[in-house]
Amino acid sequence: MKNDYSKTIKKFEKGFEKKTTRKLKDVVGFFKDKKEVEKILKTGNPILYEVFIKEFPPINLGLTVINSGTVGKEYYFTKGHIHKKKTPEFYILLDGKGELLLRKRSGKRKIIHLKKGEVALIEKGYAHRLANIGRKKLKVLTIYHEDSKPDYSVIFKKRFFKR
Predict the structure, then answer these.
(1) pLDDT for the residue 22
(2) What is the pLDDT of residue 1?
(3) How far is CA 108 from CA 80, 127, 158, in A?
(4) Running along the chain, 163 residues long, what does each successive block of 10 average in pLDDT?
(5) Rounded-to-integer distance, Cα 11 and Cα 5, Å
(6) Beta pairing partners, 100
(7) Is it true that the peptide bond before 58 is cis, omega within 30 degrees of 0?
C-alpha cells in the first residue's frame, strides 16, 4: 500500500506554532561556490527551506520542506546542527528524495539515503544536515525533544553535488 501523506502535510503546514524560513542569504557562507552565491543574490534571495513546528510538550514535531535546486552544482540543504543537550531525533521521509548527513565531533560520519515512510534515527551526539537531491520539494517529518536546543556552529565538510 502506497502512503499518501499530502493531506497530512497540508494540515501540518496550516496548524503549526512556529515557522522558520531560510533563504540563501541566511546560509551564504555554507555553499562551496561563492561566486555562484553572489551571482544568484544579485537577482534575488531564494527560499531554500522552511520548517514548521508543532509542539506536543515535551516532544516537538517538525516538517522540514526543502525546495529543489542547486547553487552551482551543490544541492540545497539545511543549515545543519547538533543538539546542545544530547538527545536523539527521528526523521521520516514523506515526499521527495533526500540524503541525511550525520557527523560526530570526532569526524566520523554516516550518510543515510532516506526512504519514504521509513524512520531514520539520529543518535545522541551526532550533528545532522539534510539535503534535497531530487527534482521536487523534499518533505521530512522530524521528531525531537523540546529541550534539544540546536547548535549551528558545526562545520560539515561532506557535500552533495549534482552529477
Answers:
(1) 98
(2) 42
(3) 16, 10, 11
(4) 67 85 95 96 98 95 97 97 95 97 90 95 96 97 95 93 92
(5) 10
(6) 112, 130
(7) yes
